[in-house]
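Collaborator request, handled under Task 6.
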Amino acid sequence: MKHAILTAITVVAVAAGAAAQTGEIRLIIQGDDMGAAHGINMGTITAYREGILRVTNVIMPGGWVPEAAQLLRENPGLDVGVHLALTSEWSRVKWRPLTDAPSLVDLNGYFFPMVWPNKNFPAGSSMREAKIDTGEVEKELRAQIELARKLMPQVTYMSTHMGFSSLSPEVRAVVEKLAQEYKLPVNPGKELGIQYLGNVWTSRDGGPERADKLAARLSSIGPGTWLMVEHAALDTPETQAMGHPGYENVAADRSAVLEAWTSPKVLAVVKQRGIKLVSYRDVLPR
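Structure tokens returned to the collaborator:
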């Protein structure tokens, strides 16, 4: 199995290199966190229907998963991944494990807010400070994958919410094991020859500034396959109520992403340069 995955990665890397040699520019726009809120669901779908987004993922313990699954069934062209989640960071809305996992939850039965200790949170708020049972981690992640595959037939990859796989070699091994078992690559990217399109804007930039900066960056990138990962949402009372210490401007931040991804300026650059909007389904081996 491991040999097969390495072979697949080699095939994709060669394909990515071929795209660069032919002068083709391919762009993967990935919007995370569907399932966590109605405003995130609708912002993501809007970015797909009216903008440049072609990949999303779903937090399966989230309260808005049924709506996310329905929207994704209605938009089968939108590539989707399982956003494996073992944390619940928002202060005023929480989610719990799909399984019985006492080592993964706080005293109220919710996932811990953070992966690592954070100065903005009380002691004991992170997975790192708890005695995590890797058996429970595997059971929970497996349940999330199974539910995603049941609800959304177009699942093609996995990603890790807040990078929890960095918690320990044991947790990383569990994620890699499940990736091999379900044939779902984790956080596809640089190892596949995909270049990361990062640091396009700052967190202080509004929608118009982000649109201008993204249009400028897309005007300058060279051939190959590029990846941008961000979060899109509508600016609504619901998303305005979301946030946690250190990140309170969720609605403003994520709606600015949506404005950039649907900007006529950005769409014009994509058209003028012949940038091909693709998804993981287009670049991963079948």
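The cover message to the collaborator said: "The domain at 2-283 is CATH 3.20.20.370 (TIM Barrel). Residues 17 and 233 are 33 Å apart (CA to CA). Please let us know whether this matches your experimental observations."
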